[in-house]
């Protein structure tokens, strides 16, 4: 079953705000670049460098090789974030199917907020541990 679903209007608004926050313009050019998982890995590495290791990826131009990068991204990054995409999802991303990248970016946005909340709660917890 596909994890990449069509976003509703509210999800689109939330995603657009998150993209603006990170200076990401989702136009035809970036959508084309995002067909390769390396481009998405670079974006998420800037936001959460502890989650992504860019040494695992090679820039790809063929759909078959882009799917290989998506497999690596799925195993090394998405599973850490409790996101898992199917082979069909990877194929949709690699060919630039309509709405596929937006759906994945939305999932990454949710994961980003989750990681930020976890970091903030850890920081607060440690602060209270150090108070006498």
UniProtKB/TrEMBL annotation:
GO CC aspect terms: axoneme
Domain called CH-like: residue spans: 15-109
GO BP field: regulation of cytoskeleton organization
Any coiled-coil regions, as ranges: none
Pfam family for this entry, one: CH_2
GO molecular function: microtubule binding
Protein name: Sperm flagellar protein 1-like
